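Supplementary Methods. Inverse-folding protocol.

Structures were first reduced to a discrete structure-token string of length 272. This string, shown here, constituted the complete conditioning input.
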């Protein structure tokens, strides 16, 4: 039970990759705080903070569901306080919550631009800021951000630069926090998938059923996150990890179990 008595604060963990990470760490003994917006069932999105908490408890973890819009500082402060009140501290922060819209500058409404910047970049900053004082008290504290390696290749900007800016903003915070928090022994790393992952975003926004069939399951990112978070926080920081590379380092090279379609073609992620 590698994460016994460790408390993990996860943003946007009611479904998809966030929930998969929560279940993986809960099975290893962690206390999980699900800080997300969805408290009532949504017609197009599976799961709520409460259904995720129930799943976490079924695999042996302890869970706290807190409704939290990470754009609102008061809600973030409240969620962090509730986590500390219930579990006594915070050892790991997973900045997973994210908004996506792949429109170009000429097509994207300002409201959608603001949403991506507020959730992706600003949200990562805001939740990190309020978790850091508690992470400083942990024996092996980690901040893990679900964001891609930074590249200035124009192909990542030519079609959907507003989204790219918001995700690279998250990655730039990883770079900054890894150095800023090095003296405190807090690791800050990024993790990103090699392929598209079968999530609501892929189903509803990126490509529907056809792209889902060419994707891997969220569990591949969850397993990779597990191995990253097992690392010594004083040594492994400032990295941009790719899920299959992390698993290869851990000796896991047969990734067929993660394919949605056994033996099927896989689609590379848009930032790979």
């Amino acid at each position: 039970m590698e994460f016994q008595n460790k408390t993990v604060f996860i943003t946007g963990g009611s479904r998809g990759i966030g929930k998969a990470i929560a279940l993986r760490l809960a099975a290893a003994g962690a206390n999980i705080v699900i800080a997300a917006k969805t408290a009532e069932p949504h017609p197009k999105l599976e799961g709520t903070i409460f259904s995720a908490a129930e799943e976490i408890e079924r695999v042996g973890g302890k869970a706290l569901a807190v409704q939290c819009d990470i754009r609102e500082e008061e809600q973030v402060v409240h969620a962090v306080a509730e986590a500390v009140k219930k579990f006594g501290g915070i050892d790991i922060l997973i900045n997973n919550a994210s908004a996506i819209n792949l429109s170009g500058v000429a097509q994207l409404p300002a409201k959608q631009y603001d949403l991506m910047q507020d959730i992706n970049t600003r949200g990562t900053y805001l939740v990190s800021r309020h978790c850091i004082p508690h992470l400083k008290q942990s024996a092996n504290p980690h901040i893990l951000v679900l964001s891609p390696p930074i590249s200035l290749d124009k192909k990542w900007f030519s079609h959907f630069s507003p989204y790219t800016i918001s995700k690279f903003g998250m990655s730039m915070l990883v770079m900054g926090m890894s150095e800023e928090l090095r003296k405190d022994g807090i690791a800050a790393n990024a993790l990103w998938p090699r392929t598209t992952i079968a999530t609501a975003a892929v189903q509803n926004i990126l490509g529907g059923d056809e792209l889902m069939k060419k994707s891997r399951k969220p569990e591949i990112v969850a397993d990779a996150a597990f191995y990253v978070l097992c690392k010594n926080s004083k040594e492994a920081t400032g990295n941009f990890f790719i899920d299959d590379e992390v698993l290869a380092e851990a000796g896991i090279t047969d990734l067929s179990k993660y394919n949605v379609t056994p033996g099927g073609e896989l689609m590379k992620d848009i930032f790979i």
